Amino acid sequence: MVKRQARGRQRIAEILDAALALFAETGYDRTSTNAIAARAGISPGSLYQYFPNKEAIADALSERLLGELREAHAAAFDDSAVAGLPLPDLVSRVVDPLVFFHVANPGAKVLIGEKGQPLHTGVTDRVGALLRARSPHLPDDDVRRTSTVAVQIVAALMGGIVAAPEPERAALVQELKRALTGYLAPPGGL
């Protein structure tokens, strides 16, 4: 029984991996369940044993990606010492796991959609907490505004970073870090 459950979990992961790749390559609307099954190396009938339709696959995939994105955010803000890092190190600590996640999952933003809003709000709150810890003199409105803009800078540039080939991607990541470091540097920021 345990082996069967492990095989089932493995098969679900293979289906979701295949769907993610196809959604990124051809888009959600142009991807069929038959194409997902073929990419996963199974028959369409086998796919339907796990998922009733493409929407169910997309829902399961968005939940998986949301969990992975939560882990990336946790890695970025994983201890209280992060607030004491030099600003460039702090920016790298926050940006690198997010870039890694989005590069590894280029279709994640579309699949997660509105489900990611609480997570996005949480990141803004965490950036605000870092601002507060590093610059306790900042008025609350400045903390809120600065953290919102910092998160929006990352969001605005992430699509271009994901789409860029190496070595341009690495250069764009450095530009993002430079922009954030400049924006967050005192007097108004971190």
UniProtKB/TrEMBL annotation:
Gene3D superfamilies: Tetracycline Repressor, domain 2. This is TetR family transcriptional regulator. GO terms for molecular function: DNA-binding transcription factor activity; transcription cis-regulatory region binding. The keyword Endoplasmic reticulum does not apply. InterPro entries: DNA-bd_HTH_TetR-type_CS, Homeodomain-like_sf, HTH-type_TetR-like_transc_reg, HTH_TetR, TetR_C_15. Pfam families: TetR_C_15, TetR_N. SUPFAM superfamilies: Homeodomain-like (SSF46689). Keywords: DNA-binding. Residues 9-69 form the HTH tetR-type domain. The keyword DNA-binding applies. Residues 32-51 bind DNA. It comes from Actinoplanes xinjiangensis.
